[in-house]
Amino acid sequence: MGSDMMLDSDYDEKRLTPNDDHDNVAIISPDDADSMVDDADGPNEPALPLATDHNAMRDRFLPAYPEYETEAEAIHTWDITNWSKLPKRSHGPVFQCAGHPWRILFFPAGNQASESVSFYLEQGFENEKPPEDWYACAQFMLVLHNPNDPSIYIHHEASHRFTADEGDWGFTRFADKNRIFASKFDGSDRPLVENDCAKMTAYVRVLKDPTGVLWHNFVNYDSKKETGMVGLRNQGATCYLNSLLQSLYLTGAFRKAVYQIPTATDQIATSSSAYSLQRLFYRLQADPVAVSTHELTQSFGWDNRQIFEQQDVQELSRILMEKLETRMKGTEAENALPNMFVGKMKTYLRCINVDYESSRIEDFWDLQLNVSGCKSLDDSFRNYIEVETLEGENKYMAEGFGLQDAKKGVIFESFPQVLHLQLKRFEYDFQRDAMMKVNDRYEFPEVWDASPYLDPAADMSEPYVYHLHGVLVHSGDLNAGHYYSFLKPEKNGEFFRFDDDRVTRATKREAIDDNFGGDYAPNPVNGVQKGQNPYTRQWSTKRSNNAYMLVYIRESRLDQILPAGNDVQPPPHLPQRLAEERAAAERKRKEREEAHLYMTVNVATEAHYKAYQGVDLIPWGADETEPAAPKQYRLLRTMTVSELTEFACKQFDLEKDLVQPWIMVNRQNGTVRPDHPLIWDDMTLQEAADKFSTRTGGFRIFLEETTRDEDGAPIWPSEEPPPANGNMHLNPPQPVKPIIIFLKYFDVDKQLLRGVGHVYMKPWEKAQDLAPHILRMMQWEEGVPLELYEEIKQTYIERMKPKNTLVASEIQDGDIICFQRHLTEPEVTALRQTNPTACLDATAYYDFLVNRIFVTFTPKQWPPPNAAFQVRHEGAEKFSIALSKKDSYDAMAHKVAEHLSSVSSTTPIDPSHLRFTTVNAAKGTPRSPVKRQAATTVANILLGSGSGYGYNVTAATVQAPDQLCYEVLEMSLTDLEQRKNVRIVWLSEGITKEEPFEFALHKQSTFSDVLAAVAKRAGLPEEVWEQVRFYEAHGGKVYKVLSLGMGVVALNEYMTVYAERIPEEERNLLSQRSAAGKEGGRLVNCFHFEKEPSKSHGTPFIFVLREGEVFRETRERLSKRTGIKGKNLEKVRFAVVKGGQNYSRPVWLEDDDITTEKLGPDDHLGLEHPNRQRSNWVRYESLNIR
Questions:
Q1: Is the peptide bond prior to 863 cis by the omega test (within 30 degrees of 0)?
Q2: 469 CB contacts (<8 Å, ≥6 apart)?
Q3: Which of 94, 406, 646, 961 has the most Cβ atoms closer than 10 angstroms to its Cβ?
Q4: Could you tell me if 654 and 605 are in contact, meaning their C-beta atoms sit under 8 angstroms apart?
Q5: pLDDT at 173
Q6: Which residues of 647-660 are buried (b: 16+ CB within 10 A; e: fewer)?
Q7: 3-class DSSP state for residue 458?
Q8: How far apart are CA 722 and CA 128, in angstroms?
Q9: Annotated Gene Ontology MF terms (predicted)?
Q10: What percent of the chain is helix, strand and coil (3-state, nearest 5)?
């Protein structure tokens, strides 16, 4: 029954709050299963007890739950009289059970179910409110019976956790009115309710609740309050991770070792798994609510795929241990993990008849134990160290003794202090061709002795007795399930259940016995021996919840592994940082609450303008880390302009009387320029924003700065009348205010555009009158020739006519004029030689800025396979540079080569020796090489734009739009394009070891040239070259043998080319038959497959057949050729596959078959066995922790 309440499914069981007169309930029509008449119909059922035989009634209809202990029982009968005159809501007398008051709640007319009567069991505190934490777990039965004939009755049973909030529970449709008032109740000769009277007997059994959560609904449950511990929140499918982390956290010595990793300099939790784990552990200690693992999984580098896909716990544990061990090197925690988790085992081969043994000792961090075929932990260990005898055809070749009978096995040299045992609950089922869960019963003890499985020569001075510390459980099946754990935090403490964000107390039975798996025990109420999988909703006789990982701690090291809580303290910086983060979060919360009182104000100064190297005046949307980015403040809307100016001056260390704020507005051409100085000191920011600011751009301020005159007074421009034009009879002209103009300088040599300041000019002055101001600002000598341009908008500038007035040029406040030195022809020629891609005038440079894109370049392979390029400083191989979308392939290559030459520790990089490859946006891996063509531009390459050319046209979501990989080639790209890329898989040790080689050979090369390249790479002496064979394979099957005269240009890129030394046996057989004047031995193509020939796998190979040889002997030679021996060879079936066709039916070979007679000229020999390289559950990427 577990923690579910026992209900009578035929009736509506419903809680009724004490303050409610009725509840809305679903209408469920009752059947007759509750009546005593129908119960008596069963031919094999014993006679029904009378309602007044209380003990018999209790034993028959309310049997005790064997898994729960009874605290007290009570039986109480209420004589109901004047039924029809009772009020709508009636109570029976109060009675006691287990020290708690109880009573029956009765609705004669039904509780919102007018056709039925309603009865409930209710706590009997009456007008007094129950204590806040009061509860009682009660199994109860309500029996309504005839006051004169106890054989006429109706009964219903239920179980419930009664609390102060849920103080009543029972049956809204206890009985149909027409039925109980009928003159003949269910075939008897009298009604159940007779003379307006009936009796109601309540049977109440209060159960002990050792865990405090029996039948708990967990509404407002507080793990910290109830257990002193908190859980971990599930991000999607991370329950397996939560179970493992809680197990490691409660292994105090492990937590202590993690705390000892130096992380004081780690600032970002998501970039360091060690720091994230420390933070997680500390929060499990200190936080009052469940903790999120989001930081930790981010530090692992996981995305949604890993978050919503359950991973292998053993693999995760091993990778995590490896990463932590690396971080612990050189610290006080060094070797802490191996000392805690590493044991040693010996694999041996011991000859029976001679004194010879071959053995090796290996470390293990955890053990995988078989569940299938084993009934207990000891069975699994006996299976693990089972000895295999090598005899007959499987004799062992002992060095110096020849073939010998031998014993092969594994024995343990030592077990670790903390023993992690992975139970193989998931196995591959060959019949179903799928992974399946093993739900067989498998027992494990609370205290276990490991000494029987140790080498007799092992050091046993300290007992190898282990205590169970943790049971990690999987509930469900392969496709739908849930993980949780039972852990014992203290040496002599109790078990707790850790189920994601909930922590509860648990009994030993719940932690151990209930997780053995196997068949369900019979239900004492209805005898059912089935249970329902809560995740698949399927019924089964076997439990779907069972242990998949056990954690044992050595008895003699319990105090060391589980130290007292005060002995494991976090590093001081952890509480401090987390307190600071909590304070910052609180500040943000408060800011959100008070957000309506504040407004965002962006403030820029002259320094920001001078630091800016782009179009327009200020980069208002730039990242705050950039030097030119304006500062953003949250200021009270009621702050005045005067207060704003004073505040800004303090922030930027300026003098208030030398500063004038300007409001910035959006112009129609898309630029943001100063519009009007804020000269009203008492105006509030809200008033200024409403009057001047644009809604979309926010409130933006530019602080204009000036200097002082000789008397120390600020220099501000004043209005002047324009000069007289000779028409004196007209009215004198009105004063006109000067125009504020911002100046930018385009440095041709540095290819740089930057702001230099601002000037005030009179409207009637000419463009050439700007020259003295520019020369003074730049500290240039007089006579330097200048070119002037007006920056009209971000995508358009126009050269100015020097003699036009500013009014004629339509110059107004906030306009930008760009200037540069005029270049002579010799200067242009010299610049072209040093920088062929340089912009020679501001127009060209603005075009570059409009089309500018920052591209990140990463080496395709690092370190590079050749020594053509090395960097002076680590990390310099990856960089970002600015390119124009209009740049040609050659211009891009030149810019990249220029940068690489500046960081290279070798010779300068030749642009013609660079090759580029596009990048997969999701994985960051190289995609396809970029072809060098005349019309190719950066936009074509990265964005797929242009006329029919692009690397991203059909895969816009796949290719990264701002990343490329590069290679520094040993030859020019032009030479490389005349070469063929040849990939060879070199089989250096039979077919058991593959080494991929890649060569760039001239397209006119033959396989003789490939042989020379392979020999050089593999270090083959020239005398064995003639023994090398090349063959082509496709789909895991040999296609054909390649001759040395074949040209590489004929290779199909979708084929795999293997190279190997022809086996000695094949060479000897062929030479012997040739010397005897016979035809050469017959070669057959072989391949591996699983179940059917279309499912090929592994490395295909060529094998020589002997004429007249029986297959028994052929199999022995195949064993030597493939390296498959012993038990593994016994699992392989051999078949003739006609023509090597995928859907040809295999013809299985028997030991006595003549191999050459069974195999036709074009047939292949197939080896049928499971694909061991296939990852569990077809995972395409292995689990990784960054």
A1: yes
A2: 247, 250, 251, 418, 487, 488, 551, 552, 553, 562
A3: 406
A4: yes
A5: 92
A6: ebbeebebeeebbb
A7: coil
A8: 95
A9: cysteine-type deubiquitinase activity
A10: 25, 30, 45
Is 80 exceeded by the pLDDT of residue 11? Answer: no
The span from the CA of 280 to the CA of 296, in Å, is: 8
What residue type is 155 in one-letter code? H
Give Cβ neighbours of residue 118 (< 8 Å, ≥ 6 apart).
106, 107, 110, 111, 170, 171, 172, 173, 174
Banded model confidence at residue 529, pLDDT cuts 50, 70, 90? low
Per-residue pLDDT tens digits for 128-149: 888 888 999 999 999 999 999 9
Mean per-residue pLDDT, 413-421: 95
Average pLDDT over residues 409-437: 85
Write out the two tokens for 1: 């029954």
Rounded CA separation 213/15 (Å): 19
Both structure tokens of 726: 């000779």
- Name the DSSP letter for residue 684: B
SS3 975: helix
Q: Does residue 961 contact residue 950 with C-beta atoms inside 8 Å? A: no
Average pLDDT value for residue range 788-792: 90
Q: Which 3 state secondary structure label does DSSP give 1127? A: helix
Spatial separation of the C-alpha atoms in residues 656 and 285, rounded to whole Å: 52
H/E segment holding residue 61: helix 54-61
The mean pLDDT value of the chain amounts to 85
Strand 786-793 and strand 796-799: the pairing is: antiparallel
Concerning whether 474 is annotated as a catalytic residue, the answer is no
Which one-letter amino acid corresponds to residue 672? V
Cα torsion angle, 486, 487, 491, 494, sign? negative
Does an H or E element contain 967, and which? strand 959-968
Report the share of the chain in percent with pLDDT over 90. Answer: 40
> Which residues face 175 on adjacent strands?
117
Structural domains of the chain ordered from first start:
54-207 (2.60.210.10), 223-328 (no CATH), 596-705 (3.10.20.90), 739-840 (3.10.20.90), 851-945+956-969 (3.10.20.90), 971-1062 (3.10.20.90), 1080-1181 (3.10.20.90)
Q: Which is the catalytic residue, given 76, 100, 160, 239? A: 239
User: Which residue out of 482, 608, 894, 1164 is catalytically annotated?
Assistant: 482
Residues near 807 by Cβ (< 8 Å), separated by ≥ 6? 763, 764
Q: Is the separation of the CB atoms in 346 and 411 below 8 Å?
A: yes
Q: Of 657 and 731, which is predicted with more confidence?
A: 657
Residues 960, 177: Cα–Cα separation, whole Å: 74
Dist. CA 401–CA 395, nearest whole Å = 12
pLDDT tens digits for range 802-814:
888 888 888 888 8
DSSP letters of 822-868? PPPHHHHHHHHHH-TT---SHHHHHHHHHTEEEEEEEESSSS-SSSS
The DSSP element (H or E) to which 796 belongs, if any, is strand 796-799
What's the DSSP call for residue 722? P
Q: Count of residues for the chain?
A: 1186
Active site residue 482: yes
pLDDT of residue 489: 93
SS3 957: coil
Beta-carbon count within 10 A of 113 CB: 24
